[in-house]
Here is the input.
Amino acid sequence: MNEQEKKEEESPLVQVISKLIGLIIFLLFVILGLIYVAVFGFPKIITEHVPPPSGSPVSKSESATNSFWQAPDTSSLAMNKDREQILYGRALIANTALYLGPSGSVAHLGNGMNCQNCHLDAGTKPFGNNYSATASTYPKFRERSGKTEDLNKRINDCFERSLNGKGLDTMSKEMQAMKAYIIWLGKDVKKGEKPKGAGIEDLAYLDRAADPMQGKKSFMTKCISCHGEDGQGKPSTDGKTYIYPPLWGIHSYNTGAGLYRITRLAGYIKNNMPLGASIESPQITNEEAWDIAAFLNSQERPTGMIEKDWPDIRNKPVDQPFGPYAETYSETQHKYGPFGPIAEAKKKTKKKSA
Ligand code: HEC
Ligand code: HEC
Here is the structure.
């Protein structure tokens, strides 16, 4: 038998064996694959991996930020007249006092604070009291006035209450610019919709009254480095505005302002203070936020023009600290809570009167 014959004789057997080995290896891979999937789940073969900007390691919380509303970028504005107006509106909101404060260059309407002190990052920060849902929801009926309000009215509300000053002429260049900016910010939000992270977060109620004494303790450790022990903040060197705005006293928001309602103030503080805090990385607990808010709003501040507010008392919010009310809870409980029982009672008065 020569070599050639040997090969020919062996070949059927060799073929069967090599096929069997192939099959076994294949089955082995299938089984290993199944075990992998059972243990780890399907591997993500196509992932949109965006490299993090240098110097900022991507954490779980940071990547989740993407699901909150994001303001359009001012650099996307076309070079035209609209751009000029929108940017002027933004400047007025960021540096209100320079234009409209007690020593403002255009008029003297406000108290030295800026809109941005409360509408952070010119009204663009998630849960930083942003304007994401403003264009999409105005004009709207508001229970506070009992009227349908347009943006002029809403902006002037903040001038008169939050800035404890006077409203702008609605035809003025400044009012038109602020509106243009706010409308441009919300241009991608559908009419009637509120994007995730809009405005101020509604915190869960405590099952006790918020405690100003407890709040004072937290305030002393977490807030005075900027706002001062006396809560008066720190004026800028030219005296026109503040580096750190005042939290009470004659230069602060008045008793008709949104922040004078504790749910608004607690929600604002929780996700924004101390400066640098955010919804993704809060620096205080809900409980601390409620107690600090109780402390701040128990201090002296200017009186707002609130006589005509909430004409239908059944629709007063649980935390409106001025009576009369449609239920029997005291002004003190409406100021500090607990709010659960008031909310329950309100459901009943609403049903009865409906
Ligand atoms: C002291 C804090 C404070 C200052 C300063 C302030 N605001 Fe406000 N603003 C609020 C609060 C609180 C609300 C109501 C938020 C809520 O109801 O959840 C509000 C609401 C608004 C709204 C309605 C937003 C919406 O989507 O419903 C507009 C518009 C507005 N402010 C504009 C301004 C402008 C313009 C300025 C500057 C002239 C200003 N605010 C200054 C606290 C402030
Ligand atoms: C590191 C400095 C810093 C610390 C600490 C700090 N804040 Fe502020 N706070 C600011 C600045 C700055 C603003 C205005 C933000 C802006 O204009 O962008 C502000 C704004 C505010 C406002 C809204 C404007 C006003 O004057 O009413 C409140 C309320 C507030 N802070 C409360 C607090 C509370 C409560 C604490 C402690 C939990 C605190 N802050 C800690 C710097 C600070």
